[in-house]
Task: structure prediction
Amino acid sequence: PPSLPEIYQDIDEQQLSALLEAEKNTPFDKVVILSVMVSVVIALNLVKGGSGKNSFPSPLGVKCGSSGYWAITGLVIVFVLIVSVWMRSGLIEKWRLKKRLRYKYVEGDVEWNEYHTVLYPCICFFAGFFAGMFGVGGGIVKGPLMLYMGVHPLVASATCAVMIMFTSVAATTMFIAFGTLIWDYGIFLFIIGLVATVVGQFGVSYLVQKYKRVSLVSLSIGAVVAISTVLMA
Result:
């Protein structure tokens, strides 16, 4: 019969194989959690409503600036913090499992340890805060941040696109609630942004495959940051 160390080694190998198999696929459970979180934030924003002429009226009759208004605003913050802390605990648990199994990280992987799971979310928080305050895209900060983290440029580009999609939808509902969204401008710019995104995505992908240079993605992110800086100056 196998010895106890051999049994433990066999269990570790099975866990490592299961972990490697899970890493190959899209984590749809995480996608569902993210979608639910954004949906709850959108619902709470609409419940708050606005007070302008063209604003979305609160279904509960909440007045802008009232105690109920600030209570719902605080609820949004608390809800997001709870989900963030929960997700952090899952990341740390997974990191500890990888460490125990001697998981070999490849180039571009991020070790989500106790330090990184605090540092990077805090940077993303301030990126989103200033993006909302000054009207710039959060990807201008998150893209270079992920490259600094050592994330593969293609992974960084795709991840930023997904994050911006969710945050943009949530932010748009706030503009709708306050009645500050100019619909003809919004639709026009949405079409331009969509077309430009498709052209840029396929264009960069074609150049990367043709010249075998993933650094072109980093170059495109840097160019967007530089152009945005010049236009804001």
The longest helix spans residues 67-100.
